[in-house]
Amino acid sequence: MNKINSIRKDWSLIETLIAQDRKILDIGCGDGGLMEQLENNRNAITHGIELNRDLAANAIAKGFNVVHGNAELDLSQYSNNSFDYVILSQTLQAMMKPKDILSELLRIGSKAIVSFPNFGHWKIRLQLLISGKMPVTESLPYTWYDTPNIHFFTIKDFLNLCNEMNIVVEKSIGLTSKGKQFEISESITGVNFFTHEAIFLLSYKNFEPIKIKSSKKVFAKNSVIAN
Amino acid sequence: MKTKFTTDTKLESEIAYFENINLKLESGDIINSFKLAFKTFGKLNTDKTNAILVCHALTGDQYVAGNNPITGREGWWSRMVGPNKPIDTNKFFVICSNVLGGCAGSTGPKELQNGSDVTYGSNFPSVTIKDMVKTQSLLIESLNIEKLFSVIGGSMGAMQALQWSIDFPDKILNIIHIAGALKHSAQNIAFHEVGRQAIMNDPIWKNGKYFENKEVPERGLSVARMIAHITYLSEDAMHRKFGRKLQSRDIISFGFDADFQVESYLRYQGKSFVERFDANSYLYLTRAMDYFDHDETFRKNVEFSHNPNNHLKYLIVSFTSDWLFPTIESKMIVNQLNSLSREVSFLEIDTDKGHDSFLLEEPQLDDVIKGFLTNNFVKIDE
């Protein structure tokens, strides 16, 4: 798969995770391709952020709500829960502070959609094992000294981080390098080995309400009782 | 309200007279009657959905496009407004009026006071950006236009566009706000004050009563313009344009002639400005900009406006080398709108041309304005 096809594929899979008539923030929206797709097919209200000036200008000229800016600095301006979905497609590995970004996504949006290339894929492991050099593949096509991707991680790493941050995976889509699609589950043997690209629909864990019985009332929802 | 329209053949401009309407200004002063000089371009469509108001900057006028009879040159934004231009007059009906307090035909300090043969001079009441916008809204109303598709402006024009979004959000669909800010900064007020002092210290100014003596405080006004002009450029642009090149000579004069090209250029800017601009207007309009301040109130205004303003679209544009209205000022507007989930777009254009970039050749500005207007117009037309 070439880069463009792989992005288109990514977009159509992201679309399947999104309900109708929702409000969406696309981080790294480029010239608005995914926004256009979601407006047309999902009747979405879309907003975008794009770091690249020319891409941002193109998106604005197409009539989309796009802010030319840096997600790592500018996400703080959005209010809590102001979007239904916040999308970060193929960019988490290029962020300075991926963990902070992840928590920002779920602060701004009720749900987050994150897609990334899996560094645990067997081709990458094999390249490093055999050649002893940093791997260069279709989904990670840059040499080590000239790459925007500064944080490499595998599906396992990502799921561990989600767990640590109390983030739950609502849905997931894995793609093999041949484009075969499946649901990512840790129970599948070798899932971290053959998943080429991964897409996750995330939200915060809903805590079970703590029920505390007093003599008169039952208090619920994590409420703190003084006596 | 009584409105009367006439055409001033000398100014080649339409004039709207608003008589006996007792317009209350922000200062509390009341103007009984006033007039606005305006120009229109293109045709209003039958549904009246294609009207755009362009607001001019400090020393601009109603001649946004076409020929300007005062200067004999092309309109100040003719590269942006016209048939097949980014603000396409084949598609849109463009209105541009001279602001209240201006000197190109609208009521201002150089006009005669109501029912007398003396000019206002410094008896003219203080005007603010809010007052300008109020009078523009009366003009739009008297043109029988209920809703503007867009209000567009750079610098002081951007202030007016923002004021429109605050005062009349239900009468507009979007604003294009270029090289502006929520407030006029301390540094900007400081530069304006130097300009005003230059005018008021010119012995010919005489408390603003110079017309009676048939004289104009040319020296003060030209110095004010020279100072202001520096703030509209950038160091890089000045260096690129002039460097240390000498003017019409090979060696320096060891005197105070305009040895350097940059000096000669500024002197020319000052000299040509006094031919087209009134010194008192300059005092009043710089003051109006100084008083502009929505720093504390903008967010609340957007959030709690009585008018439904959540349909409004905002396009905010800044320039990397603009140190008069730097990008950070635009971003404050963008941040506040984003924090309220409003439909806002923002672009910082990379250029070395400084604050004046919005008037100059900037292809990315053209593309963004053209695309923003065209595509958002398609959306309302559907």
Care to describe what's here?
The complex is a heterodimer of chains A (227) and B (382). Chain A is 32% helix and 24% strand. In chain A, β9 (212-213) and β10 (218-219) form a beta hairpin. Chain A is built from 8 helices and 10 strands. The radius of gyration of chain A is 20 Å and the shape is globular. Chain A has 227 residues and is of the alpha/beta class. Chain A has a single domain (3-219), classed as 3-Layer(aba) Sandwich (Rossmann fold), CATH 3.40.50.150. Chain A starts with a helix and ends in an 8-residue tail after the last strand. Chain A has an 8-stranded mixed β-sheet, sandwiched between helices. A two-stranded antiparallel ribbon of chain A has the order 9-10. Chain A has helices at residues 3-16, 33-42, 53-61, 71-74, 98-108, 122-131, 155-164, 191-194, and strands at residues 23-27, 45-50, 65-68, 83-89, 109-117, 167-175, 181-182, 197-204, 212-213, 218-219. With 382 residues, chain B is α/β, with parallel strands linked by helices. Chain B folds into 2 domains: 2-184 and 293-381, 3-Layer(aba) Sandwich (Rossmann fold), CATH 3.40.50; 188-287, Rna Polymerase Sigma Factor, Chain: A, CATH 1.10.1740. Chain B contains 10 helices and 15 strands. Chain B has helices at residues 129-142, 156-167, 186-200, 218-232, 235-241, 261-274, 279-291, 298-304, 327-339, 363-381, and strands spanning 2-8, 13-19, 23-24, 30-31, 34-41, 51-55, 67-68, 73-74, 81-82, 87-88, 93-97, 148-154, 172-178, 313-319, 343-349. In chain B, the strands form 4 sheets. In chain B, strands 1-2-5-11-6-12-13-14-15 form a 9-stranded mixed β-sheet, with helices on both faces. Chain B has a two-stranded antiparallel ribbon with strand order 3-4. In chain B, α9 (327-339) links the parallel β14 (313-319) and β15. The longest helix of chain B is centred in the last third of the chain and has 19 residues, at 363-381. The radius of gyration of chain B is 21 Å and the shape is globular. The mean pLDDT of chain B is 95.
